[in-house]
């Protein structure tokens, strides 16, 4: 019995030993399994929480305060060294590869390779990849829609048609329109610069020589031209207005004082009387000539600039006035033109047709002038030069009625210009406007009487100047027959100083800058009965020229630029859509390429050095064999030896797991 009891005790002891061994094996298995999962390498003496970068998904746990068995002290020390190296490699991998996987094979169990995929900032790789793919698809869809819609709008020109329709509605002469107030009271200042030709050799000219002149000036006046008595007619399709002009001298823009400066020029009243008597008898002309000599009246007179401009009491006209009271005894180039208007105008408002905006319907009750010899020449065409219809193109001709020239003239496109940051088209009268009927038959109607025509570059306006032999031209006979230029010494025509032009903003038709330049001349010729003219050569003699200028003011220019910016943005909105589509297309390409690069990006780190201590012999490492059979030979193929270490790698397949 005792023996049996002893045997039983031995068996119990063996069982206890086996249980202890099993417990030890279980502890070792638990410990080894814990080390086989790198995201749990946070226990025992290897503290990894201090070196783990945020976002790797590692949890910080309290170090268990358990006493380690003596058999594991060597293992723990080696694990500390390995864990430190492991941590550094993980940090390096995290900084260079935003996503990576950890492949681990246990050095003790030679178990199947384990993998853990790490994603930064506690975000799973699968959700990140899904969002990236969705962003790419969404960008592609938006890009395609923008390109399709933009190209369709460009082809259809929807926005351009819309803005043009809006401009046609806004640019009308109605009380509620934006342009009506500026039409009534033009904000840009208008300046009149007067230049005179001072005759330097009157005696030589009377003796048959060539006249010599010297230009003096300018004498500048500010012109105010508000529209008065504005009345709408025919249901708002037409508007009646007067346009009185007032002139104020501007010393700072003038070359001298007009009340002091003296000018020697042709005595126009003398020439007018002489020309009127040309059809009378020789004895009457001789008698009048003798009477003029008794008054001391000569072919040339010397007066102040102010007198020549604004008038003086002439002795000849005073005598005529005594016989014919309707003849004014005062004479001046601008006599009775300060504070007066040029006639009654009726304009089209553009309500029915935007192309009629600002066009003259009647002038002094006339739709046609009565002076010229053809219906075409008598037509009142175009505007008064203050406004033009919107949406002007380069190929059209613009017409202006000039009351002081007694005719309509047309302007043709010259070039694109810029005024105060505003793009404009420059229009100017072409050379055929004042061309000789021989070269331009359409001008034959301006010959009065029919067939009595002058050469190129000049226009005789006697018919609307009470029969006075007045001729108009461009300054210094610009674009005129060289014979007129060579007949007088001191003339130097050039385009920059003597061309008439108009700079128009093509979208709105608003004049941005204008220069109207015209020269007043008089015909001098021999008249029998007047001995003082018997030696002079017939000449179109220059008296003075005026440069009427206007440039948009700064406030109006700022408003114009803002308006044009809006018009440009709205008109080109389809192009902006296409541009956005192209930009998004480029973004789509970049996102796609980056996504492909991330899928194919591979990051490998060799952990062999980190866990080199695990390659030591069994007797130097405390562990329990997991296999049921001790010293079981390895089943690992020769070509695939048991790995003592790990590597980190990311592949497209693994990335999709995120």
Describe it:
- This protein folds into 2 domains: 16-127 and 604-656, no CATH class; 188-224 and 246-340 and 368-552, no CATH class.
- The chain contains 16 helices and 24 strands.
- It has helices spanning 2-36, 73-96, 125-156, 158-170, 180-184, 202-206, 268-276, 282-295, 305-310, 315-323, 375-378, 482-486, 495-498, 554-571, 573-600, 652-656; strands at residues 100-105, 114-118, 190-199, 211-224, 228-233, 238-242, 246-249, 262-266, 300-304, 312-313, 330-331, 344-348, 360-363, 398-402, 407-419, 422-428, 458-460, 470-473, 488-489, 501-504, 511-524, 539-551, 605-606, 645-649.
- The strands form 5 sheets. Strands 3, 4, 7, 14, 15, 16, 17, 18, 19, 20, 21 and 22 form a 12-stranded mixed sheet that branches. It has a 4-stranded antiparallel sheet with strand order 2-1-24-23, covered by helices on one side.
- Strand 20 (501-504) and strand 21 form a beta hairpin.
- Helix 3 packs antiparallel against helix 15.
- The radius of gyration is 52 Å and the shape is elongated.
- Mean pLDDT is 78; it is low at 28-72, 97-102, 104-124 and 602-658.
Distance between the termini: 69 Å
Helix content: 25-40%
Please describe the biggest sheet, giving its number of strands, its sense, and whether it closes into a barrel. Answer: 12 strands, mixed
Strand percent estimate: 15-25%
Low-confidence residue ranges = 28-72, 97-102, 104-124, 602-658
Q: State the domain count.
A: 2
Structural class: alpha+beta
């Amino acid at each position: 019995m005792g023996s049996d009891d002893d045997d039983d005790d031995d068996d119990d002891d063996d069982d206890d030993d086996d249980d202890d061994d099993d417990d030890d094996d279980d502890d070792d298995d638990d410990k080894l399994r814990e080390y086989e999962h790198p995201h749990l390498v946070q226990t025992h003496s290897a503290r990894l929480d201090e070196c783990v970068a945020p976002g790797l998904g590692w949890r910080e746990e309290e170090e268990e305060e358990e006493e380690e068995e003596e058999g594991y002290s060597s293992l723990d020390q080696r694990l500390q060294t390995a864990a430190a190296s492991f941590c550094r490699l993980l940090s390096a991998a995290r900084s260079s590869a935003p996503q990576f996987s950890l492949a681990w094979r246990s050095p003790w169990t030679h178990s199947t390779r384990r993998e853990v995929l790490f994603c930064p900032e506690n975000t799973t790789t699968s959700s990140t990849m899904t969002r990236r793919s969705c962003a790419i698809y969404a960008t592609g869809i938006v890009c395609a829609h923008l390109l399709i819609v933009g190209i369709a709008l460009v082809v259809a020109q929807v926005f351009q048609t819309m803005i043009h329709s809006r401009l046609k509605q806004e640019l009308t002469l109605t009380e509620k329109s934006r342009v009506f107030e500026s039409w009534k009271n033009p904000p840009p200042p208008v300046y009149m610069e007067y230049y005179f030709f001072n005759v330097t050799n009157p005696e030589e000219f009377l003796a048959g020589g060539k006249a010599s002149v010297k230009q003096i000036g300018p004498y500048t006046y500010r012109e105010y031209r508000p529209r008065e008595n504005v009345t709408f007619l025919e249901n708002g399709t037409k508007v009646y207005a007067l346009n009185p002009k007032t002139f104020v001298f501007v010393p700072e823009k003038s070359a001298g004082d007009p009340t002091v400066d003296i000018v020697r020029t042709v005595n126009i009243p003398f020439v007018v009387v002489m020309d009127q008597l040309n059809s009378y008898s020789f004895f009457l002309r001789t008698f009048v000539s003798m009477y003029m000599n008794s008054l001391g009246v000569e072919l040339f007179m010397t007066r102040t600039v102010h007198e020549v401009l604004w008038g003086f009491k002439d002795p000849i006209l005073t005598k005529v006035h005594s016989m014919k009271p309707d003849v004014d005894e005062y004479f001046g180039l601008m006599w009775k033109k300060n504070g007066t208007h040029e006639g009654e105008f009726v304009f089209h408002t553009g309500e029915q047709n935007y192309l009629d905006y600002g066009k003259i319907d009647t002038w002094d009750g006339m739709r046609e002038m009565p002076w010229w010899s053809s219906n075409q020449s008598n037509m009142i065409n175009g505007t008064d030069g203050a406004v033009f219809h919107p949406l002007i193109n380069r190929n059209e001709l613009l017409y202006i009625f000039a009351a002081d020239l007694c005719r309509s003239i047309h302007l043709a496109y010259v070039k694109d210009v810029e005024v105060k940051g505003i793009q404009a088209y420059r229009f100017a009268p072409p050379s055929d406007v004042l061309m000789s009927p021989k070269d331009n038959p359409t001008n034959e109607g301006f010959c009065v009487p029919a067939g009595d025509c002058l050469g190129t570059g000049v226009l005789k306006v006697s018919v609307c100047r009470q029969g006075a032999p007045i001729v108009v031209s461009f300054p210094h006979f610009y674009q005129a027959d060289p014979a007129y230029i060579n007949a007088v010494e001191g003339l130097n025509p050039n385009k920059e100083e003597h061309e008439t032009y108009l700079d128009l903003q093509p979208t709105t038709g608003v004049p941005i800058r204008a220069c109207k330049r015209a020269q007043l001349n008089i015909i001098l010729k021999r008249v029998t009965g007047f001995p003082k003219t018997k030696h002079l050569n017939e000449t179109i003699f220059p008296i003075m020229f005026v440069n009427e200028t206007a440039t948009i003011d700064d406030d109006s220019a700022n408003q114009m630029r803002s308006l044009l910016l809006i018009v440009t943005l709205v008109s080109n909105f389809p192009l902006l859509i296409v541009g956005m589509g192209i930009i998004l297309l480029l973004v789509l390409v970049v996102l796609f390429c980056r996504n492909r690069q991330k899928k194919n990006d591979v990051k490998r780190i060799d952990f062999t050095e980190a866990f080199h201590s695990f390659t030591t012999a069994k007797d130097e490492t405390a562990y329990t064999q997991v296999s049921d059979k001790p010293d079981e030979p390895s089943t690992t193929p020769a070509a695939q030896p048991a790995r003592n270490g790990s590597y980190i790698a990311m592949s497209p397949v693994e990335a999709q797991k995120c």
